[in-house]
Amino acid sequence: MGIVMLRLLSILTLALAALPAAAQEAAQEKPRGLLDPHAGLMFWTLLIFVALWLLLRKYAFPAIFAAVEAREKALEDAIAAAKRDREEATKLLEEHRRQIDAARADAQRLIAEGAKAGEKIRAEMIEEARHQQQEILDRARQEIGAERDRAIAELRREAVDLAIRGASKVIERNLDDETNRKIVEQFLGSLQTSER
Amino acid sequence: MRFGLSLAAALLLSASPLLAQEHEAPARPDVDSMVSAKVAEEIQGHAPEEQHAGESEASHNVDIITPHITDSHHMECPASWKIWQARECHLPEWEPIHIGSFELDLSPTKHVVMLWIAGILTFATLFFAGRGARRYQEAGRAPKGFPNAIEAISLYMRNEVIMPNVGHHGERYVPFILTLFYFILFANLLGLVPYGSTATGNISVTATLAILSFLMVEWAGIRTLGRGYINTIVYWPHDMPLAMKLPMTLIMTPVEIMGKFTKPFALAIRLLANMTAGHVVVLALVGLIFAFGSWWVAGGPFIMAIAIMMLELFVAFLQAFIFAVLTSVFIGQIREGAH
């Protein structure tokens, strides 16, 4: 934008301004036709247009475009905020999902552990019960055996006594009690060993 | 449907001044126009009886088209409170201002008045649209209704038309081109309302706008190219031997300069012709009704005139748009050019 440009522009303007003047002189002779320029009207057009241009540039267009730009900015902000929120939400969701997964795994593990422990306890209890039962059975069997032995012994003694008493009654006189008894007991002893 | 009806009503209203004009026509000197002489002759020859009531002879030509499309010191205005009856009003005539040998007649003509109305309407429309937009913005909402419509048009022009054509940092040219668009649009539309006249159908107006557009284009070139602007006037190819350069410069420089001036010339003539042609057709069609003077014929031209009026409505927008688009294209070209 030097002096040269300004001078050029002013020459151009002058040249153009001279155009209607030349045309106007030509139009003087005959009545106004469709293609005859009229300097007054050109002046008014210029005045009105330039005034309108300056006025609109100052009072109308900035307002219209400022509103649009403000709206565009608000919209962009809203979109950015929404994107940010969505990213945050995605992150949170991811975290929650992870937490839920972890919790679920924990629960699974706990249930499995519980089940295993239960199983173990049950097995132990069954084992113990069986053991006790066995113990009780053994003891009972032992006792029964002891009782039986004692009963057998008792019965045997009783039988011996009865037999001795019967035999003594029969052969009281002629036989020595002590010797007889030995004979019978020997007999019974042989009986017992042969039974086994 | 409602739109069509209102358009028909508008056409009727805009035709009513024509009837009044016909009464007054003999008082005015005839204007020679090849287009309308025949129609006018027929009007005088066959017009219905009541139209002739006050006239003694029916011999001279009455031109209804040329006065309508050219500028004058007369205007149609309502005769009384009955706004459908028109009469001719005389606009004040001032003494011309003398600047040296140059005579500048500043007295307002029909088209000057129309330009003022167009300018005021444009400003009012955009100003109130801007205020409405600001009010909506303060309320934190998008504008509705009228401000929204203006905003949509302005935004479309800026984002889809001006900025892509003008190129980078084209913001400073937006107000100029938008003003061109709206001003031409309102001036075009004013020709379609009753009592209106198409100021953009006048070569003085279109030429002035085209010259302004031309100056803006050249200024944009100077601004963007700086010293390189000379290259848009003088053709100087850098990649040629000197023996080729000189003849090329001699031949191409006049072409470049002519190219500069054909653009605004085309702009001016395009707008003028488009705005004038439709009116000539509508007037010729309406003239047919009076030429035949028969109710049986009236329907056809009436319907055709409505169709042409609708086309005119479209053309009014189209031509304003084209003027704005071409101006931005030219600005873009000169900013691109002469690398």
Fold topology:
The complex is a heterodimer of chains A (196) and B (339).
Chain A: H1 3-27, H2 39-171, H3 177-195
Chain B: H1 2-24, H2 34-46, H3 66-69, E1 74-78, E2 86-90, E3 97-99, E4 102-104, H4 110-138, H5 145-166, H6 174-190, H7 203-225, H8 242-292, H9 295-336
Antiparallel strand pairs in B: 1-2, 3-4
Helix pairs in contact in B: 1-9, 2-8, 4-5, 4-6, 5-9, 6-9, 7-8, 7-9, 8-9
Largest sheet of chain A: none
Secondary-structure content class of chain A: mainly alpha
Beta-strand content of chain B: under 5%
Q: Which two chains touch over the largest interface? A: A-B, 50 and 72 residues
Proportion of residues in β-strands of chain A: under 5%
- The tally of beta strands of chain B, per DSSP, is 4
Cα end-to-end separation of chain B = 55 Å
| Sequence stretches where pLDDT stays below 50 over 5 or more residues of chain B | 16-59
Number of domains of chain B: 1
What topology, given as strand order, has the largest sheet of chain B?
A: 1-2
Q: Kindly report the oligomeric state of this protein.
A: heterodimer
Integer-rounded radius of gyration of chain B: 24 Å
Global Rg of chain A: 68 Å
Helix content of chain A: over 70%
The percent of residues in helical segments of chain B reads 55-70%
Give the overall silhouette of chain A: rod-shaped
- Mean pLDDT across the residues of chain A is 81
Q: Average pLDDT value of chain B?
A: 80
Order of helices and strands of chain A: HHH
Please provide a brief summary of the model:
Chain A has 196 residues and is mainly alpha-helical. Helix content of chain A is 90%, strand content 0%. Mean pLDDT of chain A is 81; it is low at 17-31.
